[in-house]
Amino acid sequence: MTALSVAAEVRSGERTARDVADEALAAVAADDSRFHAFLNVLGDEARAQADAVDAAVAEGRDPGPLAGVPVALKDNLCTRGHATTCGSRILEGWLPPYDATVVTQLRRAGAVALGKTNMDEFAMGSSTENSAFGPTRNPRGTEKVPGGSSGGSAAAVAAGFAPLGLGSDTGGSIRQPAALCGVVGMKPTYGRVSRYGLVAFASSLDQIGPFATTVQDAALLFDVLAGHDPLDSTSLPSAPEPTLPGIDEGVEGLRVGLCRDLVEGCAADVAARVHEAADALAKAGAKVEEVSVPEFSYGLSAYYLIAPAEASSNLARYDGVRYGLRVDGDDVEAMNTATRTAGFGAEVKRRIMLGTYALSAGYYDAYYAQAQRVRTLVMQAFDRAYASYDVLLGATAPTTAFDLGAKVDDPMAMYMNDVCTIPSNLSGHPAISVPFGTGEDGLPVGVQVLAPALGEAVLFRVARVVEAHAP
Amino acid sequence: MSDWETVIGLEVHTELATETKLFCGCRNAFGDEPNINICPACLGLPGALPVLNERAVELAMRIGAALHCEIRPSEFARKNYFYPDQAKDYQISQYDLPLNANGWLELPDGFRVGVTRAHMEEDTGKLTHVGASGRINAALHALVDYNRSSVPLVEIVSEPDMRNSAQARAYVSELRGILMATGASDGRMEEGSMRVDANVSVRPVGSSGFGTRCEIKNLNSLRSLGRAIDYEVARQIALIEGGGVVDQETRHWDEAAGRTETMRSKEEANDYRYFPEPDLVRLAPDEAWQDKVRSGLGPMPADRRAALVASLGDGPSPADIDQVNAVVDLGLDRLVAAASEAGAPTALALARAANEVAAQADAGLRLDAASFAALLALEAGGQLSATQSKTVLAALLERGGGDPAALAKEMGFEAMASDTLAAAVDQVIAANAEEWARFVGGDEGEQKKLMGFFTGKVMQATSGKANGKDVAAELRRRESA
Fold first, then answer.
1. What string of DSSP letters covers B332-368?
2. pTM: predicted TM-score of the whole model, two decimal places
3. Which of A143, A194, A213, A443 gets the most CB atoms within 10 Å of its CB?
4. Which of B22, B43, B45 has the highest number of chain A CBs within 10 A, making it the mutation to test binding with A?
5. What is the ipTM of this complex?
C-alpha cells in the first residue's frame, strides 16, 4: 500500500484511519521482533490520531493530504510526552515537553505517528548497530544491517509496517539505509525542512527527510514538511512550490552528469546498476554525460572533522544536571564525568573526543578551519558541475547491505559507507536514493540523484524516471 | 611608588532592558520566583533552537552608536565549557566578529578611553550554593535558577587606556549614564544589570610594553572597583619590588576582607573551543537600520552636561561643574531643565537638584519635573523661603510630585504680609540694639556676619515663615534710612 492510496481511501471513506492504524499496529506487534525497527510503539496515541482523522472525514472536514497514513518516526524527533532516546542511555527517562515541528506538521496533515524507530546513538553510525538498545535487522535479509543511522525507519518502511518514515540525514543517514533496505530515501535542501525538535548531531549538516516505498510518496511527504519555520533560524524564508504535481513531467532535454567520483570506488555490481540507470535516463530523453568532480574525494575527511566538532558541542548538554541519566559523584565535575561515561556508547565518545580535539586551541586552524575550507571547495565544485548539468547521478552506498557485526570494530570501514552521500550534506543540497535492482547477493542497490539547492522538483522528476526503469 | 605606572582595561557586562530573552520568548525579569521564565530553548532541551531577539540587536546597536563604534557584519559563536548554570554547556556569544568595534568613550574631564568592542551574548543561569556557610567549598548542594539563562547581555571591552582607579570609576560611571541614556540598561549595578571585570597591570614609568595582568572579578559597585584596583596595584608593585613576578590569573575581589584572591591561574583557564554557532545565521544590520538607530539616539550625558553648563551662563565655577556632573550622572538634569524653562534661575534649580534631590536619587528619578519646576518658580518669586521650599520639596519627593502651591498652603507656608514682616524686623532690631549698631557701622565682613544673625532672629520670630530675601531687603532699608 502506498501512502497516496491509503490517504485516498481514508479521505473517500472507503477505509477508516482507525482500521489502517490497527492493522499497522498488529503487524508491528506480530513481526517487529524479527527486525527491531521500533524502540517504542505509540499505540494509544496512534489510535487517537486515527480517530481524529475519521471524525474529520465524518464531519466533512478536510482530513489532510496524509489522512490516516501511518508514519514511522526516527527516535531523535521530539514527541511531546513520549520518550525520545536518540538510541542512547543518556536520555533515559526524558519526556520531551514539546513536539518537533515536523511532528506537528504530520499531525495537521492527518498522518498517524506509529512509533519511534531505532537508530545509531545520536545518529552516529551507518548500520544502526550503535544503538544502546540493540541493532535493527534488514528486512531484505535479517543477517544484514539495515544501514544507518536511520535504520529503524528504513526497516519499518521496507518491512511494510508503515508506507512512510521520517529520518535525519547528516552524512547519508537517510539515503544509505534507504539503499540498503530497498526503499526511497531523500534528503532535502538544508533549511527546507525545520530542524526544530530534531535532537542535534551536527547542526550545519542535519536535515530531516522522508522514507517511502515510491518516489511519489516521498514527494507527497516532502511537500507536507517543506516550508519556513520561525522557530528555526536556519529555515529558508521562501515558500516552496509543491513537487508532486509536476513529478511526471519526465526528463526530456534534462542534462544528467554521471559522476565518476560517486561510482568508481563502489563494488562492481553497484556500479553496474548505476550505469544501467544512466542508460535508462538517456533512453527517456535526458542528455547523459560522464563528469568528474574530484573535490568530492575530500568530502569524507572534512565531514569527519566538522560533524564531530559540532557534535562535541551539541552533546555537551547531556551532563546529568537537568534531565536524562544522572550518575552521582562527589562533586559536579565527578557527576558530569560519571554520567557521560555511563550514558554514551563508544562511537559517540570517539566522535566527542575527535571533535573536541579538532576545535582545541592550537589545532583549530589545522583541523576545523581547514575542514571548513574544504567544505567551501566542495560547494564550489558543485556549482561548477551544476553550470553544465541539471542533476548528478551516482551510487548511494558503495556496497549492498553487509553482515551484522562485520564492521563494528573498524570505524574507518564503517565511515567509508558515507563517501557518496556526504558531499550533498557539505553543500546543503538535496539528494535522493532510489532502489534500482539488486547486487550479486540479491540485496537491493540504491541509485543516487543529486540536485542543486532547492532543486527538489527536478530531483523527484528524475528519480521517478529511474524508479520506472528499475529492473 | 612613583616609579610605577598602572594600566587598566575594563570589561563591562550589561543586561539589556528587553521584554524577552535573547534567543526565546521568555520574560526577561529580575527577582521572579525561580525557574518560571523558562522554555525548551533557554533550558537547553534536546532539539530546541535559538531565535535572535530583534529588540536586543537594536539596543546593542544603540550602545555601539553611543560609543562611536563601527557597526559591522557579525557572527555568533559557541563558547564551550561545562558549568551547571550553563543550560547547553556552551554560551552563545560573539567572538571574532563582534557587532560593534573601534569606538571610544570620553570622560567628563575630556580624557578618551578606547572601546575595543561591544558584542552580544547570552547570560547564564544563577547558582545558589546551599550549605552551612553559603560558601562554594562548604556547600552541601547547589540550586540553579534558569530565569536568567539567555537574558541578553552586551559586553563592552575597553582598551587598556586608564591609568588609575579614579579614571576607571569615571569610565564606569560615564558608561552607566550612556547605557541608561540609550535605554539599553537600567544601570542597576547592585541587581547585576551591570557587572565589571578589571584587567590590571603595572609597568615602570616610561615603558611602553605591558606588565603581566590580573583580571579581577566580582566588582559590584564603583566603590569596590576603586578599592580593588588600588589594592591590586599595591599588591603587584610590592610583589615585583620584593623580587617576585606577577602571575597571569583571575582574581576574586573580597569586599569584606578588602583584598583580591586567586580564583584560577592561566594554566587552569578553559580552552573555550569557540566556533561559529551553526544554529544562527550571520547578523549584518543594513545601512538603513543603522541610520535609524543612530538618528534615534537621544542626548548622551556629555551633551546634557554641556546643555546644563550653557544654561548656567558665563563662567561656571568648579563647584558648579561638580554639581552639573552629579546631576547628570543621576539623571536629574531633566528637573533642572524644566525649572529653568519655567523661569527659575538655573543655578538655584541645579543646587536643589544636586543637594536635596540627589540625597534621594531614586525618588528623584520618579519626581514629576513639572512639580519641581512649579516649586522652584514659587521659591524664585519669593512666595516661599528657601527653608519652606526645601520642606515642600521633601513632600514632593515622597509623593513623586503634586501641586507645590497647595502643599505649601497645607503646611501653612503662605507668603507673609509685608507689614507683619516689617513689625517683626522692628521688634528684633529693638531687642538687639548693640548688634544693630555694629551692623550699621560695620565693614562688609561684619555686615555679612550680622545679616545672618538678624535673619535668623527674624526667622525665629516668624516661625520660619519669613522669606530670607525679604528680611535682607527690610534690614537694608532701615540701614540706609
1. -HHHHHHHHHTT--HHHHHHHIIIIIGGGHHHHHHS-
2. 0.89
3. A194
4. B45
5. 0.96
